Structure formats: C-alpha cells, structure tokens
Amino acid sequence: MNQGGSMFYRILFLLTIPFLSFADPAPFGLEINKTTLPEARKLYSLALASKNKESKTKTYQIDTRKINFKGLLSLQATFNEKGILAAVHGTMEKTNFERMLTTLDNKYELITKDVPPAGNKEAKLKDHNTIIFIEAPHLSTQMAFLYMNEQIWNKAMATIAKNGNNQKLQEKRQA
Q1: Residue 152 burial by CB count (10 A; 0-12/13-18/19+): exposed, middle or buried?
Q2: 3-state secondary structure 146-175
Q3: What CA–CA distances, in Å, run from 79 to 45, 56, 162?
Q4: Alpha carbon distances (Å) from 97 to 22, 122, 167
Q5: 0.70 surpassed by pTM
Q6: Number of helices (H) and strands (E), helices first, in the chain?
Q7: Confidence at residue 52, expressed as pLDDT on a 0 to 100 scale
Q8: Closest Cα partner for 92 from 37, 45, 28?
Q9: Which of 38, 70, 118, 144 could form a disulfide with 8 if both were Cys (CB 3.0 to 4.6 A apart)?
C-alpha cells in the first residue's frame, strides 16, 4: 500500500481513455462497459457527483437506501463521454472485507492479495477485461471497492508510477 494516499482515489482520478464493450462483471446490476446512463437511471436514483473535463467522464452518486446489501455506505457509477458505464466504486463497512474477498475470490481470478492480521488489507481480482480492487485501510472503519476496465487500470497504474518517478526526480533536484 502506498503512503501518498489511497490508490483507490488516485485510480478514480485517472479515468482517461475510452472504453470498449466486453462481457464484464455487473456489480449491483450495472455491467461494466455496457450499461448506459439511461439504463442505470431506470435501476437507481442518480445524482451527479462530479464531472472530469480532462477524461470527459461523469460520476453519479447512487441512492443506496433501496439497495439490500448489508454495510453498503456509498455507491458511485462513472460513465464515459458516450454515457457507457466505466466504473463502479464505493465504500462499505470494513467488517465486510473478508466476506467480500471470499465471495469475489470464488467468482473471479485472484491476482494479488495482501491481507495481514494487522495493517492495510487489499486484493486485486480480474474477470474478462475488468479489474476489481478492494482495500481496507488499517485505521479506518470503512473499506473501498472498485470495478474498472483493465486497460484503464493499466493506464492509471502507469500514470501513477510516472508521477511518482517525476516527484522523486523533483525532490532530488531540490535537495
């Protein structure tokens, strides 16, 4: 786990490339790379939470009061410029981490898992062309989850690495 902030939020910020259609997971009935904004509006009450001018994405807060999922605290859906679902992300009570990991591990391919008895916990899984990332910071009562197209995940990771290298270079120049 990096120390410069939550990787989850860094990745969300980096939704910058177009999406392709694949048969991908459908968390909360919202299929990644397929569900359209009008289809999502039929399922849920959505409120615009943010717009990213650079990536031309819009993120909507989903009213979770009608979703029967124990411990779900927040749920958001990000749509690309064509109105196609790009990512589903949210938070839930940290006590759900083990149950969610077990459920996901039984359904998807486990890529990495770091679940120490104490400390930050995280896991990355894959299904078709979707990366699923869950994390539970040590000193938090909440955990985060993210479903995202694999190409976007890889681009986000490359951008994070590049920004980290640029920051290290800048720090060396200032020293």
Answers
A1: buried
A2: EEEEHHHHHHHHHHHHHHHHHHHHHHHHHC
A3: 15, 9, 25
A4: 27, 9, 32
A5: yes
A6: 4, 8
A7: 85
A8: 28
A9: 144
Give the pLDDT confidence of 80-113 residue by residue, as tens digits.
889 999 899 999 999 999 999 999 999 999 999 9
Residue 34 burial (CB count, 10 A): 15
The structure tokens 């939020």 sit at: 9
Q: Which two tokens stand for residue 148?
A: 């995202």
Local structure of residue 69 (DSSP, 8 states)? -
Q: What CA–CA distance (Å, rounded) separates 30 from 148?
A: 12
Q: Which helix (H) or strand (E) holds 40?
A: helix 37-43
